[in-house]
Amino acid sequence: MRFYDTLSGSIIEFRPMHKNRINIFVCGPTVYDDFHIGHARTYIFFDTIVKFMRSIGYSVFYLQNITDIDDKIIKRASEENTTPEYIADKYFKEYLRIMSELGVDSVNYYAKATLYIDEIISQIKRMIDKGYAYETSDGVYFEVKKFKDYGQLSKQNLDNIIENARGILNEDKKNPEDFVLWKKMKPGEPYWESPWGKGRPGWHIEDTAITETYFGDEYDIHGGGSDLIFPHHEAEIAQMRSISNKKYLAHYWIHTGMININSEKMSKSLKNYITIKDVLKDYTPNELRFAVLNANFNKSIEFSRDSLNEAREALSRIINTYRKLENIELENGDYKIDYNYIIKKYIDIMSDNFDTRSLIKEIMGLVAEINKNIDNIDKKTALNILKIFDYINSFMNIIPRKRSIDASTINAILNIRSMLRSEKRYDLSDYIRKELEASGLHIEDKNNETQWWIE
To answer: Of all helices (H) and strands (E), which one includes residue 390?
Structure first.
């Protein structure tokens, strides 16, 4: 297995630290607001690759943090005249709900930042003891220029980072580029006791405290959106390596590309911010998964209603083909497949930079081939093809589970439709068809018979 690693800046062979066992950490959200399609892209992608890794024999522990204390949470609580704890709990529950709706269920553990205050304080103490951090009147800061490798992940020169930070004023900090590890309490803010007084953790420190707790001071893979590379992930590296004296925090770094709306980076300030909740009003979770996976993971993608409609159309062809195969009863057919060859081919595609886009192209090619030969496929071959789709779906999760339905009721409705058609009352028969298809029931009239299946 090989993939693009942000740290090396190239596609490299993956070698786990422990045979057949992978520890992966992905930055979770700050729980203060509705979640957007950038979140969807990142968490759908990592859900897919973790499931794929498991499907080829790896034991994967997938850890994700939840930022449940932050300036944004405190501000939102103040605006709504409630507590930060209430805001964090409300949106964490919403996050779990919407991830479940998207079929993102591969995470082993969600670690809330506020449960790791002791570990955070321990890390800060060690940074101070080693001369990398210092206390001021408003908090504790990491002194960036003390860590010579700062900037390696984002491919920036440390001198340039220091120079570009000029003008970011804070009279208490030694240097403008230094970042906060511990924020001393302001009136009315939540706080925890610490050696530096009452306060709360900075954003960067929670991640290394959490990963050290579960993985130790280095682990296999760190993931997240590309917007987190600098300064967030750069700061994480500086924090952990300054106290571990090791070469790596994570041996490999995987970042998903940004989402553009109308050729501009999605952002609230540009008013082109789209929530997952809004997308799911008009499209299914499977269609959204298909849309974000039909792209190279580390490239920016243009997200639009057109791209979602294209996903809907392509996915409908896959689902309809799947349902047709489920209904095949032919005992002997001429069309055969090499199951092992196809599965290996698909695994090879995914093992080369998690190329879900190329995999989707292969699937669409298989769908076209199946439909071309549908009348020559026997039941045994159909079952083998279904096994191929089921394997792909075990990590892509694009084909919805078949819903249970009362077949006798559907057959009665279709008998009425057939009568209407025989009487040439096509307006009513077409109306019935459209209503059934809007409910996810696909109908195909063939050889004076009507076949149906559930999408």
So the answer is: helix 379-396
Read off the pLDDT of each residue in 139-164 and give the average, rounded to a whole number.
95
Residue 184 lies in a domain: no
Question: Could you say which of 373, 396, 419 is where a domain stops?
Answer: 396
- Both tokens of 124, joined, read 């800060």
SS (HEC) of 316-380: HHHHHHHHHHHCCCCCCCCCCCCHHHHHHHHHHHHHECCCHHHHHHHHHHHHHHHHHCHHHCCHH
Specify the pLDDT at position 171. Answer: 66
Q: In the prediction, which pLDDT does 429 show?
A: 85
Strands (DSSP E) found in 108-236: 109-112, 133-135, 139-142, 179-184, 199-201, 219-225
Please give the angle made by the CA atoms of 14, 16 and 20, to the nearest 5 degrees.
115
Give mean pLDDT, residues 251-270. Answer: 86
List the alpha helices (DSSP H) in 268-333.
276-282, 285-293, 305-326
Residue 18 carries which DSSP code? B
- Within-domain flag for 176: no
Rounded (5°) CA angle 32-116-209: 100
Range of the domain at 6: 2-133+142-168+200-256
CATH at 321: 1.20.120
The DSSP letter of residue 67 is: B
How large is the greatest C-alpha to C-alpha distance in the chain, in angstroms?
A: 89
pTM assigned to the model: 0.89
